[in-house]
Every structure is written in structure tokens, then in C-alpha cells.
Amino acid sequence: QVQLVESGGGLVQPGGSLRLSCATSRSAFSINAMGWYRQAPGKQRELVATISSGDTTNYGDSVKGRFTISRDSAKNTVYLQMNSLEPEDTAVYYCNVVDWVIGTYWGQGTQVTVSS
């Protein structure tokens, strides 16, 4: 059974920073890409950022220049550094993994709340 462990969410003031982590139990050799999506109340789930096994990154327009995605292949972990957070960034953030063998799977989500 695949395990996907997310951490790092919480409450932060506008302008603050948070770092999310997501670790998968699958081997790095099976991972095509990892990334983060988010869903705010009453809205559709949207892309935040993804990173491929070749380190190609892709960002949603609303987070470009503020968020940075990175990965540690030795730890099968992806990170999302979020800076200059805005109230509009408030959402549940979901880790996503695209696996060459078993397809796509998701984490349970971690809440990020940006509020003064």
C-alpha cells in the first residue's frame, strides 16, 4: 500500500511564509512527477506547482514568483516553499504523484490559512 505523508500546513499572517513537504513510500525510479494542487471552499481544485523526474517545473499563474517547488530524490520528497502569502492562498493543499507503474495518486491534504 502506497503511503503519502504531507506536512507543513498551518496558519500564517499575510506576507508570511510556509514550507510544505510530501514524502512517498514509492521508489524514486517509479516517479514521473510530483506536485501540489489546492482547493479553496467553493472553488475547483487548481494547479499550484509540479516538478518532473527531470526537474522540469510548472507553476500556476497565481503563484509564479512567490512559490518554489523542489524535490529530494533520495528521500522521495517534494517541497513547496511559499513566500509572500496572501489571503487568497488559503486552501487545502494536496500532494499529487504521477507514477510510471500505478498511475496518479493523491495525499489527504493539508490546510493552509493566511489570515491576520
Structure explained in plain terms:
The protein has no helices and eleven strands. It has 116 residues and is an all-beta fold. Strands 2, 4, 5, 6, 9, 10 and 11 form a seven-stranded mixed sheet that branches. A four-stranded antiparallel sheet has the order 1-3-8-7, with no helix packed on it. Strand 5 and strand 6 form a beta hairpin. It is 0% helix and 54% strand. The protein starts with a strand and ends with a strand.
Outline:
With 116 residues, the protein is mostly beta strands. Helix content is 0%, strand content 54%. The chain starts with a strand and ends with a strand.
Kindly list the characteristics that best describe this protein.
single chain, 116 residues, mainly beta, 7-stranded mixed β-sheet, 4-stranded antiparallel β-sheet, 0% helix, globular
Write the layout of secondary structure elements.
Layout: E1 4-7, E2 10-12, E3 18-24, E4 31-39, E5 46-52, E6 57-59, E7 67-72, E8 77-82, E9 91-99, E10 103-106, E11 110-114
The SSE string, one letter per element, is EEEEEEEEEEE
The global form is: globular
Helix content: under 10%
N-to-C CA distance? 40 Å
Largest β-sheet summary: 7 strands, mixed
Task: Let me know the average pLDDT.
Answer: 95
